[in-house]
Amino acid sequence: MGNMVWKVLGTGSAIVAGIVANKIVAIVWSRFGSGQDIDPNNPDNPIGEAIAFAALAGLAMGLARTMATRQAASFYKKSSGHLPTEMQVALKGELDKVS
Are 57 and 23 in contact (CB under 8 A)? Predict the structure, then answer.
C-alpha cells in the first residue's frame, strides 16, 4: 500500500464520518432539543441553543473523525504491516522528544 492509498483511505473515512455525525446530530437535536432544525449562525435563534448545538456538533464531528481515522490506520496497518508514513513520522517525533 502506498502513500496515495492512505490519503484516500484516511481522508475518505473522515469525510464519511463527518457526514454521518452531522446526520446523527440533526436527529438527536430534533428529538431532544427544541424539536426543530437550528442554524447556530442565525441571530434570531437563542444564543444558548446556538452554543449547545455548536458544542454537540463539534464533539460529534471530532469524535467521528478520530474514530474513523484510527480505524482506517488500523486497517492500513493490518494490510501493509506498518502504519502510514505520516503516522510513523509523527510517532518518531514524539519518541525523540521523550528521549
Answer: no
Note whether 9 and 72 are within 8 A (CB): yes
Single pTM value for the model: 0.71
Q: For residue 79, what are the contacts with CB-CB under 8 A and spacing of at least 6?
A: 1
Judge contact between 38 and 45, C-beta under 8 A.
Answer: yes
Single-letter amino acid code for the residue at 53: F
Walk along the chain (99 residues) and give the pLDDT tens digit of each residue. Answer: 567 887 888 889 989 998 999 899 888 888 876 667 778 888 888 898 889 888 999 999 999 999 998 898 888 888 888 888 877 776 666 556 655
